[in-house]
Design goal:
The complex is a heterotrimer of chains A (248), B (350) and C (368). Chain A is 37% helix and 26% strand. By secondary structure, chain A is of the alpha/beta class. Chain A has a domain of 64 residues. Chain B folds into 2 domains: 108 residues, abc type-2 transporter like domain (abc type-2 transporter like fold, 3-Layer(aba) Sandwich); 197 residues, no CATH class. The relative contact order of chain B is 0.10. The chains are: A alpha/beta (248), B alpha/beta (350), C alpha/beta (368).
């Protein structure tokens, strides 16, 4: 693990009127790390992530993503990050290849590059026979793997995954995490929100959010030791018990 | 917004619907410059139907004004009009109208014709006052306008537009709502629950039926009565009875559209297509009598036609059930056919 | 540029993949232009009327003969009592009743004055007015004939010329109107959902995270529809000329250029609706319910704009189809060149620029 910091936040806060969705969040993420962002529904995970991606303007605080400032250089940031949302976000009425071509195109990749890398992805995911089929017709697990591959298609420094594995079976989830490890080995930092505790175990470090505040931040192993429990589930219960906010 | 949009439109749009031809722009090309030509011009302007926008003695200038939509009619008074009329006992005036809108041209022409004839008669009388009193026999015509003494167009349009609003809400909102569930996938979830299909459909239809009733009530009592002062002459109960039946037919159309479309965009395009036809082929703006025979058939297959007729008959003329029993029967058939069609098609596709 | 091509290809694929919508997109204008071109007219003919002749003399019979041959009227013979007029009006059996009083002919000869009563069902004021004036014209022309036997001195004759449309066909007026209406509404409808659909499907988030130019996204959404609509325009024009006998007296390229301008204005309006709404349903509610009737009525082909109350005349200025309608009439029928319509063109261009600027400005690059 190198120690180059790719995400650095300081007291990052987002308020919607009186409601403080994310309160003074401060943390660092290192290059190539798989950083888990955990919390109950409504804890503020998605809000925090959206601020980091430039989808939402923070109320106050500082943050630096891939060497660019979140307030002044959002357009630069966008070139160096990838994003995959809960809704896996591909165009259902386009084919696999057309989706690849489109997303390659908007990140300004060259036609030849798109074709070569696209072929490689299709081969790796075993989608040779489906390349010309509409995304609509693929099973959810494949869509998600494809969406992830497309999110890192332009070799971003950081990829943000917002609950990427909702609704798929454990085998597919395992395969999905293999893709994540692979990306991390290539030096892509992975920032992932989840509420599956088994997934939390796969991360290098995790932060726990409760009521918009980061309550804990460490490796899964250390966290379990600190709270003196056996599983991440228990860590989560320990922390989330004090939550005031109702899940949404 | 479902309520506000139609109500606002109902308040404003009837003001726009006025076929009465007035404010016709006239260009007078006067080569004569005589006292007679001046008094003719003054008489035309004094009639109130015409607005003198161009006045001069060059026809090309007047024609240019017509090209620019500044004049609808050009009246050309020839050189020595007054002199020749007195000497030869006859003179021609030239009229040229912009006939792109044929009705406007012919109505405008006949107004002007009448004014000129009148002017002619006065002129003749003045000249012949001393000669024989043997004037010609005259047939005088006494027109009476029943139900709408002052030919107020708003009384005619408000009920029609109200029908269109109710129809749009019913067919269109209902279709979109169901297709949205299809698109989002919740309809699958409902299909696996033990809810019977007809219960589901009914559950979907009833709210829109109620909304339709509600909008109609607001339109009839708030807008028509308070804003336009229109009080139905006939039975309000009869109107509601018809509305209740009509909404079932309209919601049936919405259902049919929803069964044929997979996305909201498709549903909307279909709804748009039918709304356009329903609207323009319903006699709302143009009389069905003036349509060619085949087009009349389309109008007869259009449920909107019947409700517009019923509304106008009951509101303006106080027609009774026996006058509109055909309308009831046809609408009932529509209601049954549309809903049966929708349900059959719904079964087939899911 | 590469981004633009990617976006553009994608939008085209969206449009062409949805066969049903595509079919509607092409079928709709064709059906409507033909249907309305033939069916719509303000002209009134074959209206059922009833005549009560209490005079039964030569004069009344001659006038009735004249009424019978008129194409405007169809004479209903089954109603025999004057008391039934009200009932027949209410059942929509007749539209007009003409009553000749007893001694009609005699009065005319001896008293030099006789009157005819015309009773109209004025619940439809337009029909009532038109029918009354038709009947009046028939009676007046009889009177003229009667007087023609004697020579009248000092008479002013009017020679009338109907310019542009000598046969007074309804299509000449309605086709440009329907053209304006159909093209405007289709373009607005199609684009109004385009952006909001991405919001609903969640793909917007991904676009927002990517380094794209909002301007390109908005423009590339409009282009496929611009091309499709120009195709539609060709079809509409072919139909109007060959099926509906419409002339194209002016420059056809000018007509195309102006049509492209209207299409652009409509697309910009659709895009604006799309950026301002949050769901497809809302967008469609706006574009269909909110626009169908107002554009129909305020374009000027249904009801003369100059008759409307001033506030409505002012409002009609923001309806793009109003300007386009004037332009189409000027080019197709009057055969005028650009110098006659530069003002309207400028207004449409200004609208387009304004709408497009607002929609790009309003295009939120943040989710809040």
């Amino acid at each position: 693990m190198e120690n180059e910091v790719v995400i650095k936040t300081e007291n990052l806060t987002k308020a919607f009127g009186d409601f403080i969705a994310a309160n003074a969040i401060t943390f660092d993420v290192y290059k190539g790390e798989i950083f888990g962002f955990l919390g109950a529904n409504g804890a503020g995970k998605t809000t925090a992530m959206r601020m980091l991606c430039g989808l939402s303007t923070p109320t106050s605080g500082k943050a630096n993503i891939a060497g660019f400032d979140i307030w002044t250089q959002t357009e630069e940031i966008k070139k160096h990050i990838g994003y995959m949302s809960q809704k896996f976000s591909l165009y259902e009425d386009l084919t696999v290849r057309e989706n690849i071509r489109f997303f390659g195109g908007i990140y300004g990749l060259k036609g030849k590059e798109i074709r070569q890398k696209g072929d490689a992805i299709i081969k790796k995911l075993g989608l040779e026979n489906e390349a010309k089929k509409l995304v609509k017709s693929l099973p959810l697990g494949w869509k998600q793997k494809l969406a992830f591959s497309i999110a890192i298609f332009h070799e971003p420094k950081i990829v943000f995954l917002d609950e990427p594995t909702g609704g798929v079976d454990p085998v597919t989830r395992r395969q999905f995490w293999d893709l994540i490890y692979e990306a991390s080995e290539r030096g892509i930092t992975v920032f992932v929100t989840t509420h599956y505790m088994d997934e939390a175990e796969y991360c290098n470090r995790i932060s726990m959010m409760v009521d918009g505040v980061i309550k804990a931040l460490d490796s899964p192993k250390k966290l379990k030791e600190n709270y003196g429990v056996e599983t991440m589930d228990e860590v989560f219960y320990e922390l989330a018990r004090g939550a005031q906010r109702k899940a949404d | 917004m479902i309520i506000a949009l139609p109500v606002i439109q109902l308040m404003v749009l009837p003001l726009a619907a006025d076929f009465e031809i007035k404010n016709i722009n006239i260009a007078v090309v006067d080569h004569d410059h005589s006292a007679l030509s001046r008094s003719l011009r003054e008489k035309i302007v004094a009639s109130g139907y015409f607005r003198l926008t161009v006045f001069g003695d060059s026809y090309p200038d007047a024609f240019k004004a017509m090209e620019r939509n500044k004049a609808d009619i050009i009246l050309e008074i020839p050189n020595d009009f007054e002199k020749d009329l007195a000497r030869d006992g006859g003179q021609d005036l030239f009229l040229a109208m912009n006939a792109i809108n044929g009705t406007k041209a012919s109505v405008g022409g006949s107004y002007l014709g009448r004014i000129i004839a009148d002017f002619n008669q006065q002129y003749r009388k003045n000249l012949m006052i001393q000669s024989n009193s043997e004037s010609s026999s005259i047939i005088s015509i006494n027109p009476i306008n029943w139900y709408n003494l002052f030919l107020n167009y708003k009384i005619f349009m408000v009920p029609g537009i109200l029908v269109v609003m109710v129809t749009m809400i019913g067919a269109y909102m209902c279709a979109l709502n169901i297709v949205k569930e299809k698109e989002v996938g919740t309809i699958e979830q409902i299909n696996v629950t033990p809810i019977k299909k007809h219960h589901f459909i009914l559950g979907k239809l009833i709210p829109f039926w109620v909304i339709g009733m509600f909008v109609f009530t607001i339109g009839l009592f708030l807008v028509a009565r308070i804003v336009y002062g229109i009080v139905p002459l006939g039975s309000i109960g009869l109107l509601y009875a018809f509305l209740a039946l009509y909404l079932v037919a309209v919601l049936g159309i919405g259902l049919i559209i929803s069964t044929y479309s997979n996305t909201q965009q498709q549903a909307m395009s279909l709804a748009f297509f039918f709304m356009m036809i329903f609207l323009l082929m319903s006699g709302l703006f143009t009389s069905i009598d003036s349509m060619p025979e085949w087009a009349k058939w389309i109008a007869r297959l259009n449920p909107v036609t019947y409700f517009i007729e019923v509304m106008r008959m009951v509101v303006m003329k106080g027609s009774e059930f026996k006058d509109i029993k055909m309308h009831f029967a046809v609408t009932a058939v529509f209601a049954v056919v549309f809903n049966a069609w929708a349900i059959l098609n719904y079964r087939k596709t899911s | 540029m590469k981004q633009f091509i990617a976006f553009f290809t994608k939008e085209f694929l969206h449009v062409f993949r949805d066969r049903k919508t595509l079919l509607l997109l092409f079928g709709l204008p064709v059906v409507q232009i033909v249907l309305f071109g033939f069916a719509l007219s303000n002209e009134i003919k074959n209206s059922k009327i009833v005549i009560f002749d209490y005079a039964k003399d030569a004069t009344s019979r001659k006038i009735i003969e004249k009424l019978e041959v008129s194409k405007s009227f169809e004479i209903e013979k089954n109603i025999t009592r004057v008391e039934d007029i009200d009932k027949s009006f209410r059942a929509e059996n007749i539209k007009l009743a003409i009553v000749f009083p007893a001694n009609f002919g005699e009065d005319l000869v001896h008293l030099k004055n006789a009157s005819v009563q015309i009773i109209a069902d004025a619940s439809d004021p337009n029909t009532a007015n038109t029918l009354t004036s038709y009947a009046t014209n028939v009676i007046m022309s009889y009177q003229k004939e009667m007087m023609q036997t004697r020579n009248i001195p000092y008479s002013i004759n009017t020679e009338m010329r109907m310019l542009y449309n000598p046969e007074l066909k309804g299509t000449t007026n309605f086709v440009p109107g329907v053209m304006a209406l159909v093209m405007l509404l289709i373009c607005v409808l199609m684009t109004s959902v385009s952006i909001v659909r991405e919001k609903e499907n969640g793909t917007m988030e991904v676009l927002l995270v990517s380094p794209f130019n909002p301007f390109l996204v908005v423009i590339s959404k409009a282009i496929p529809y611009l091309i499709l609509s120009l195709f539609n325009l060709i079809v509409i024009l072919v139909l109007s000329v060959y099926l509906l006998d419409m002339p194209i007296n002016g420059n056809i390229f000018l007509l195309f250029a102006e049509s492209a301008l209207l299409i652009l204005a409509a697309l910009s309006l659709g895009l604006l609706i799309s950026t301002l709404t949050n769901s497809q349903q809302e967008a469609m509610l706006f574009s269909l319910m909110g626009m169908l009737l107002p554009t129909m009525m305020l374009t000027g082909f249904m009801f003369p704009l100059e008759n409307m109350p001033v506030p409505l005349q002012v409002i009609s200025n923001i309806v793009p189809s109003k300007w386009y309608y004037i332009i189409v009439k000027s080019i197709m029928i009057k055969g005028l060149g650009f110098s006659a319509i530069w003002k309207e063109t400028l207004i449409l261009a200004g609208m387009t620029a304004l709408l497009l600027t607002i929609s790009i400005r309003k295009f939120n690059i943040r989710l809040e």
